[in-house]
């Protein structure tokens, strides 16, 4: 794997960054395409991505287990309908073992800097464990990898314990402590019920209340698991049903948000079952359309808020004065520990500061006015760089694994096209193609609940543009990423050192002559 000449850096065909679902999926797909000259660069000491990092109490997935797994690596033995973090992390470890990925994975190898060499047509990569070069880089760092900590005056002087939900301190015992939970996102609604019975007092600081629907989680029976092992079509049928239901829901989010009123009524009924205090219900009831922020699933959150040792401060944290937390509404609370559930750097991913493209500009500088890429995969000015879970590939109601597999289809065909073109060659996304794609995406976004629902969410960047979510079905996205259209790219060769139109490259077959994309087996689609 790779080659190292005397006095020269190691060179590989493909370097994959990250070993979560996106990175491991890319590694499996590379092997299925016959490409074994690749490495997976992982900054931590083990694989798993966000499912390694997020180990807080109660951590679980809000997508059904049989839909939250690779179609090419089905798991008949999921323990629950909505599996917890330990089961999902164990699944990713098994994927790494089953598909022989360990020898490709470089742990403790955080990417510190990546620079495009326009003369050699490859990426120079500096990592925490050494340097290498790669013809193609696949960035699968994911949007939920770098925690976001708010800048709170006085926080540095807080005498107690402080940590983010994605960096849980398991050595610190919260039992008997006065704890503040900052934020009411997907992590917080799992943490609150998990720690409330043990702490002396739990104070939840809520800037904006979420819409919460019950989560119909249960143990998957031994009989069900036996059936899925013995009769694989039953497993595929279960996955297909879960997928189909969510595909049918998409139009309400993307075209007819007013249809979501019935869902709001169900969410309010879910709240009323546990929250009997009308004043508390009022503070927990959102003022925006359901779906504008991600709909959260929990059957334990509201009962936890009704506990006598749990307080809700319907205001954000403004200041810390010693051990006293001061909310924006003036409420003061003395605590021993602060847990931040304040999300991640989604629209300002730190990896973008470390990637330097053709013009010497970083990807962060290129995206200063908002993230955008061609089909969620390639950015103008960054040849032979692909992103898994790139701009506008997120989902509001279904499994991101479906989107990842679609992008793996696109990655596979991208590499095939490079092979068809032959020689030392790079593909550079045309700015016109990137702009056209993003105009289409943003035009579709105008009608969606994420843009019209009356909320401010992490889906939006600083300019208020939704650069995160895909405004369509997973089936539509799969169709759009089934194959690379060479007309959307410029072909760059060493001998040219200048981009040329794909159609004008001597000896280059027309796009129609390129190999067809071999679709990943997908029981749902």
Automatic annotation (TrEMBL):
<comment type="similarity">
    <text>Belongs to the FAD-binding monooxygenase family.</text>
</comment>
<keyword id="KW-0503">Monooxygenase</keyword>
<keyword id="KW-0521">NADP</keyword>
<dbReference type="GO" id="GO:0050661">
    <property type="term" value="F:NADP binding"/>
</dbReference>
<dbReference type="InterPro" id="IPR020946">
    <property type="entry name" value="Flavin_mOase-like"/>
</dbReference>
<keyword id="KW-0274">FAD</keyword>
<dbReference type="GO" id="GO:0004499">
    <property type="term" value="F:N,N-dimethylaniline monooxygenase activity"/>
</dbReference>
<keyword id="KW-0285">Flavoprotein</keyword>
<keyword id="KW-0560">Oxidoreductase</keyword>
<dbReference type="Pfam" id="PF00743">
    <property type="entry name" value="FMO-like"/>
</dbReference>
<dbReference type="GO" id="GO:0050660">
    <property type="term" value="F:flavin adenine dinucleotide binding"/>
</dbReference>
<dbReference type="InterPro" id="IPR036188">
    <property type="entry name" value="FAD/NAD-bd_sf"/>
</dbReference>
<comment type="function">
    <text>Catalyzes a Baeyer-Villiger oxidation reaction, i.e. the insertion of an oxygen atom into a carbon-carbon bond adjacent to a carbonyl, which converts ketones to esters or lactones using NADPH and/or NADH as an electron donor. Thus, can convert bicyclo[3.2.0]hept-2-en-6-one into the oxidative lactone products 2-oxabicyclo[3.3.0]oct-6-en-3-one and 3-oxabicyclo[3.3.0]oct-6-en-2-one. Is also able to catalyze the sulfoxidation of methyl phenyl sulfide (thioanisole).</text>
</comment>
<protein>
    <recommendedName>
        <fullName>Baeyer-Villiger monooxygenase</fullName>
    </recommendedName>
</protein>
<dbReference type="InterPro" id="IPR051209">
    <property type="entry name" value="FAD-bind_Monooxygenase_sf"/>
</dbReference>
<feature type="region of interest" description="Disordered">
    <location>
        <begin position="506"/>
        <end position="525"/>
    </location>
</feature>
